[in-house]
Design brief:
The complex is a heterodimer of chains A (661) and B (163).
Chain A: E1 4-9, H1 21-29, E2 34-40, H2 46-58, E3 63-68, H3 71-84, E4 92-96, H4 98-102, H5 108-126, E5 136-138, E6 142-146, H6 150-161, E7 165-169, E8 184-185, E9 190-191, H7 192-205, E10 209-212, E11 215-223, E12 226-233, H8 248-252, E13 258-259, E14 268-269, E15 272-273, E16 285-286, H9 292-296, H10 301-305, E17 318-324, E18 326-329, E19 333-335, E20 352-354, H11 355-362, E21 383-390, H12 407-421, E22 426-431, H13 441-451, E23 455-458, E24 461-467, E25 470-477, E26 482-488, E27 490-495, E28 497-499, H14 502-510, E29 537-539, H15 549-567, E30 571-573, E31 579-581, H16 591-595, E32 601-610, E33 613-622, H17 632-636, E34 642-644, H18 649-659
Parallel strand pairs in A: 1-2, 1-3, 3-4, 6-7, 6-18, 7-10, 18-29, 20-27, 21-22, 21-27, 22-23
Antiparallel strand pairs in A: 5-30, 8-9, 11-12, 12-17, 13-14, 15-16, 19-28, 24-25, 25-26, 31-34, 32-33
Chain B: H1 2-9, H2 11-23, E1 29-34, H3 38-47, E2 56-61, H4 69-77, E3 82-87, H5 98-115, E4 123-127, H6 133-150
Parallel strand pairs in B: 1-2, 1-3, 3-4
Helix pairs in contact in B: 3-6
The chains are: A alpha/beta (661), B alpha/beta (163).
Amino acid sequence: MRRIGVFVCWCGSNIAATVDVAAVVADAKVQPGVVFAQDYQYMCSEAGQNIIKDAIKEHQLTGIVVCSCSPRMHEATFRKAAAAAGLNPYMVEIANVREHCSWIHKDKEAGTEKARVLMRAAVAKVMLNVPLKAGESRVVKRALVIGGGIAGIQTALDIADAGFQVDIVEKNATIGGRMAQLDKTFPTLDCSSCILTPKMVEAKASENIRLITYAEVEEVGGFVGDFKVKIRKKARFVKEDVCTGCGLCMAKCPSKKGLNEFNMGLNNRPAIYIPFAQAIPNVAVIDKTQCIKLNTGKCGLCEKVCTAKAIDYTMQDEFIEEEYGAIVMATGFRPIDASKFDEYSYSTCKDVVTSLELERIMNAAGPTGGVLLRPSDGKHPHSVVFVQCVGSRDVSGRGKPYCSKICCMYTAKHAMLIRDKYPDVDVHVFYIDVRTPGKNFDEFYRRAAEQYDVDYIKGQVGKVWEEDGHLVVRGVDLISNEQVILNADMVVLATAIEPDPTARKVANMLTASIDTNDFITEAHPKLRPVESPTAGIFLSGVCQGPKDIPETVSQAGAAASKVIGLLCKDKLTTNPCVARSDELLCNGCSCCEKVCPYGAISYDTHLINDHGVKETRRVALVNEALCQGCGACTVVCPSGAMDLKGFSNKQIMAEVEAICL
Amino acid sequence: MPVNENVNADNGSAAEAQATETKQWKPRIVAFCCNWCSYAGADLAGSSRLSYPAEIKIIRVPCSCRVNPTFILKAFERGADGVIICGCHPGDCHYSTGNYYARRRMALLFSMLDYIGVERGRTRVEWVSAAEGARFSQVMNDFAKKISELGENVKVGDLRCRQ
């Protein structure tokens, strides 16, 4: 005999404003099997939970339905409350009357009717629930961080600090990421390298951190606490443990036509190179597309000059297989391709540069040694025009619909640095809005505009073209409502940032949700901002959304603390909603085995007692530790032997019937 | 039996209700949403207050591949006017391949349903990610509009029961 309790939450006015809560309670009371129904203002509060606990005890409830917010929000809360009152936590069902009802309907009558139906469907389902017991799985005490920029480095350092092993997988030959390319950082103007490189060295020196550079994640299997990851370590043709980083090979290499990626292609580098002076590991790498020896078999100069005997032209890609308890995504970003916005003549005029290119030009270790020179003729510019929001806040589909968040501030920084170093240079900034929310941000922007006389023009630029050896910028000043035509020696485009192209590939491997802009989706935008909805996957840095360095570092620390919290556990409880095979019905056809993405189904011959007839049959067996509960096997099973606990055929049928009543 | 009491109490007004029902037909739509993408997308539509008709009721399933064709047949048998299955975008399935199975199964089922008189427009498969609250609402509004245009569905019944 089922004894069901129904609890209807007001959620303050969130539910109660559009759903007649009393009517839902009254309707619940007359549902078959329901012996108790009550409403309360906040069911998730302590008092609300106590109502549930007391009712379970007093009315000997065998199952409960909570009509409240989404189960993704508070299912765990109510399950815990039920367990505390001695009820099996899987005897709880949630009717989502907030997100799926009260919040989207304005008409109270329609809202109440829908809430009733949702309640009835949940009651019909819970009538068929059976107590389930969660199993246990192990936790591998090692974390993987994908991406070795500031986000990945900080996460790894924090995890390592707590005493756990961490591996950083970085696709480039060195860690450091985008931050290593920056010259100064806003709003303090401290030197980017000076604050980043000590952290890189610390990561290298830490006993708990292993750096796997020039490597990419190839395959991910397993689940939270027990991931199995295959990493491809690309052949760098230089023995990492032997190379001393002396740089002699770079000087002697005759192939010097490779574009220097670190300098955004503003100058060239040899085929064998160390990305930059402070690279970690400080080891050379051969670009196999440029190397003469690897392409023609001739040359071999670097091998001859290398006193450490570190060069190995026969090196092959290696594979590393490792187990991890948690994985952090820190795949970072790249600026979008500015040539898509050709009204700014980026692809035709050398003196139209992106902000990251200007960052390299301004950097003392950059292609011009930190001197502001025009890329076309190496002359000193007298007028620089900045164009903001190139590809950001663009709903036309050409760019990105979001605000890239960092551009207003770095443009103010660039403008200020140029005015500070070269007071003879006129600086103009075209902007849509100047957005400066952040500690000391607005003060910084005002300093640029007021103290350094940077000319801020509210309006967009329509066209940039070359004329008589200089650039002409045509834009509009929205305040005076007039067209503005400026002569400039250089134009700097504040290009939007987008997630690194590897993010989607990695997210798919990790089965982490991703949004339409390829940013990784967090489990909850406010309450769980550093976790993916996929258990055991955490997010750090720009892969989750645009952010600056201080935000990235704080988020990296937050992700690390979540990882530490997970790795501290010795056992995890597993999801008991897994597939189950009915031996009496199974005919051993192997259909389920073929569709299972986890290899959780195997076969065995069992002695079956089929209504008194004993016979040996081949039957399917589900490995509950491997099964993730997708239910693919349940539909494919021709004899209906496979079912999914918690989402059984009968339960879903009952819901369908209750909704279509 | 509490349920019988309820039916008896409302008996008088039931006929009236039925009369108004025929005048003002409202569609019944069942939406199967996978837990990881579409159900979360529906939650986001909710928290963004993006409305869609109240006639749409959502059933949570772990994955779109959990939707057994018999669930859909049952819905039509019970008088549903439309059934929509929502999953993760191709390539983004939480279980890697579930949505592909769903897509293939439903292609077959829908053509069969069409053959027995449940028009193509009454069944649909859509991909909605957890971040696409706006898309969820848009898809649901569009689907509900389509069902309203098609009008009331013919109940799919078991012919053996009519004898």
